[in-house]
Design a protein that fits this description.
Layout: H1 6-12, E1 15-16, H2 22-27, H3 40-43, H4 45-57, E2 62-64, H5 72-75, H6 88-103, E3 110-115, H7 119-122, H8 127-142, E4 149-155, H9 158-168, E5 175-179, H10 192-202, E6 206-210, H11 215-231, E7 237-241, H12 274-287, E8 289-292, H13 300-310
Parallel strand pairs: 1-8, 2-3, 3-4, 4-5, 5-6, 6-7, 7-8
Helix pairs in contact: 4-6, 4-13, 6-8, 8-9, 9-10, 10-11, 11-12, 12-13
Length: 324
């Protein structure tokens, strides 16, 4: 009997994702701060592999291939020299190989292929060019049967989400899409609720938010999304992957924690405790969120306590740790 897919699991209960990759790998010396691109999959695969293992051991049900910002236009952006030696295809192939090896060590772990926003959208190059960049991201995932679903994340504009989802649907896999927005809406002024409705209508099976804002702001934002989706008669699964830091003062700012003087290299005093995470997971679940993960600052031990909050009557597997 094959393993259950993402949508089957979400129908049965919560699914716990992994967390911070670019921030955590930068702290460990594997990612260059600034570009935040994932060439470590080629240059330091053991470092990436170890972080996957830590999330898996901490109870994550999903491991996301480390492909954040793996777009050819990002790799060639001014000041980033990585595009001279590696391509999106190279990095995504390496990332899939790494995550597949780690998932094979675990028990029934899902693999997610991640896609990122494109500089081409911000440069106004139009739908055709932007979708070509997404097609290059999706190409590797679509041909690998071990990739269980696709995620388009860290999106700032719902229009680009729609273009991405349209491209991703051709792969024939479940699609999740998350935006880096708060209660005010996207960077073009589209309201938060409308963003959720448009992602769902475009064909996303799972919609939600990730990054830029903390757990409390994320709860407010996902509630707005849920209300709008209910009003439109739409019922995609809901997903949250917030920051691992407290930053309530940026709730109404479009760039979120980027406005903080500590960002990105001095955020540690704002780090969430494991108890903050467990409380957040319970509140998100009660709002109807079924996919719970984390973004920048969410360490493996945070994943452990996401699971504890989502399953308050069932402790995580204790074979590699202890629940207190």
């Amino acid at each position: 009997m094959g393993k259950k897919g993402l949508l089957e699991r979400l129908a049965e209960g919560p699914v716990v994702g992994d967390g911070s990759y670019v921030f955590t790998l930068e702290k460990r010396g594997y990612v260059k701060g600034g570009p935040w691109t994932p060439e470590a999959t080629i240059e330091n695969p053991e470092g990436v592999k170890q972080l996957h293992r830590e999330f898996m051991w901490a109870g994550a049900d999903v491991l996301q291939a480390f492909t954040f910002y793996s777009t050819d236009d990002k790799l060639h952006l001014a000041g980033n020299l990585e595009g001279e030696s590696v391509t999106c295809h190279d990095q995504n192939e390496a990332a899939c190989k790494i995550v597949q090896e780690v998932a094979a060590e675990g028990d029934d772990v899902l693999i997610c292929g991640g896609c990122s926003p494109t500089p081409s959208y911000m440069e106004g190059k139009g739908k055709e060019v932007v979708q070509q960049e997404f097609q290059k991201q999706v190409e590797v995932f679509s041909h690998r049967k071990e990739v269980d679903f696709l995620l388009c994340e860290f999106m700032g504009h719902v229009e680009e989400c729609e273009w991405a989802i349209e491209t991703m649907k051709a792969a024939g896999k479940p699609i999740a899409c998350t935006m880096r927005i708060g209660p005010k809406g996207d960077q073009n002024g589209v309201l938060t609720g409308e963003c959720a409705v448009r992602m769902a209508k475009a064909g996303a099976d799972v919609v939600g938010i990730n990054c830029l804002y903390d757990i409390n702001t994320s709860l407010k934002t996902i509630e707005i999304m849920k209300t709008a989706l209910d009003g439109a008669g739409l019922s995609p699964y809901l997903m949250t992957q917030p920051l691992g830091y407290h930053c309530p003062e940026v709730e109404d700012m479009l760039e979120g924690y980027f406005h903080l003087p500590e960002a990105p290299f001095a955020m540690e005093p704002r780090l969430l405790t494991r108890f903050d995470v467990q409380k957040f997971a319970r509140a998100a679940y009660e709002l109807g969120v079924r996919y719970l993960g984390g973004c920048c600052g969410f360490e493996p031990y945070h994943s452990w306590h996401l699971k504890g909050g989502a399953y308050p009557r069932r402790a995580p597997n204790t074979s590699r740790g202890a629940v207190h």
